[in-house]
Every structure is written in structure tokens, then in C-alpha cells.
Amino acid sequence: MKGHEPAMRPPFPPSPERSAELRRRFAEEARSERPDLAALCLLLGAEADGALDEAGIDAAQIELDTLAGQLPFRPGGPRSWAVSLRELLGDRCGFHGSAADYQRLESSLLHEVLVRRRGLPILLSVVWMEVARRAGAPVYGVALPGHFVVGFGPPQEQVLADPFDGGRVLAGADAELLVAGATGGSLEPSMLVPAETLDVVQRILNNVRAWAATRPERSDVGLWAVELALLLPSHPARLRYERAQLLVQRGDFVEGAGELEAYAGVVAAVDEAAAGRLRQQARAARARLN
To answer: Where do the record's region annotations for Disordered lie (predicted)?
Structure first.
């Protein structure tokens, strides 16, 4: 895969049969003992882009293997690993991000990020993590509020790098500035712990849902992102309400109403008034069939 900017093409969805198979594999991988981050991201990408077939998924995995093979063998401690990744992925290969990348769905799809060498902080961090992991680095994701980065080494020797900024190795105050810029708050030690694989995937899906939410004409993207999130072993119950709303928005009033009623059954245990409002929404959805 060469780092160039291809002409934009609107992705088309996979066939219903292909989508069902992708979702089965996604759910199976998410529930495995050690979920594979790259595999989950590529299955997510195939759900978004019907052009990503099995050969394309294999090519993306091979690209990650190839990049890992270009790293020096065991360069040293955490800082040496961070510098080696920056020199390879940031300096030589040109992986980085910019403000414009937040406007593109491709910035959340791993196979597109590997081609374009551009993406959101969390997807560029996935590239860093997967390449570094294959090379034997002590690497993990760090889910700072509003800006995902990567970490190397144990807590007492932790070194952070920002793939969105080409892999810049962060000085002590840099992470504090990133958090302050995103939230106005201060950096807490709990923010520096390694992110779990499924939490990374959930955050990617949250980004896709946020992208779709500002584009009503792309409710199809919002729907598949919600439905993949519902396949994760742990997810917010409110996602069912979001799915119901999207179904109604897309004109599937019967299934949307059924989902609203099912969610009302969950809510009723803690808030009967809210459950009543949900049942009213379900009746209103069904009324739109007449």
C-alpha cells in the first residue's frame, strides 16, 4: 500500500449476506479470550465499505506485518521504541493527522488509514500499536479525554507518543496540555492506564456515530455503527434507544417501534414515567404507517 491521496469515492455497503457474516465474525472476535484489535477494526471497515473484500483485509494485515519488519530489532527501552516508531511511521511513511481528517469517514477506517496515511488520533494510534506489537514493543493505547495517544513501557517508565502529530514523543507537560485543551480539566493518573481492546473499538464506533449524527443523510452509517456497538459484550443500554430512533428516521417504523417497546421494558424497572414516554413514541411510530 502506497501513501497517496486517492480520489474520494462514496463507499457502498456490503450485501446483506456479507454484512451478516462480517457481524458474526465481529461478535465472535469481540467475545474471544484475547480480541484482536486489527481484526476488529478491519471487520468494522468492511461493514462500512463493501469494496473491502477478504483479499483487502489480508492486504491490510500484510501491510502491518511489513511495516513491523522495517523496525530495528529490539531498539531498547520505552523511549527508544517510541523514537523508532516515530522515525518509521511518522517521518519515513508520513502517517499523521490534520483537522480536515475529522470530516472524513475514511479517517475511522483502518484499511483507508493504511492507504491514505491519514486518520483520526485513535486510528493512527491503532497503526502504531499494531506495528509496534508485531515487533515486540511494550505498547498500548492511552485514551486521554478528547485525544488518543500511545504509551510504551511500565507506569514508572512510561513514554507517550502522539501519532496524530507524526508520532511526536511527548514531554511531561504535553499530555497535561492535551487534556486541558480537550476538556479544560487537569490530567489524572487514571487517564494514563492502558486502554482495553474493546474500549478502543467502542471509542472508534462512538466517533463514527458522532460523524453520522451531524449528517442526517448518512443515517445508514449511524445505524451500522450502533448495531456493531451492540455486538460488543459490554455496551450502554441506551444504544438500543439510539438504534430505535435511527430505524424510525429511516422509515422502518415497525422495527423501530418494537425496539422502543423493548427498551421501555428495560427502563421501566427504574423509571416508569420514562418508560411510558418511550411507549408513546412507539405508538407514534406505528401511527406513521397509516
So the answer is: 1-27
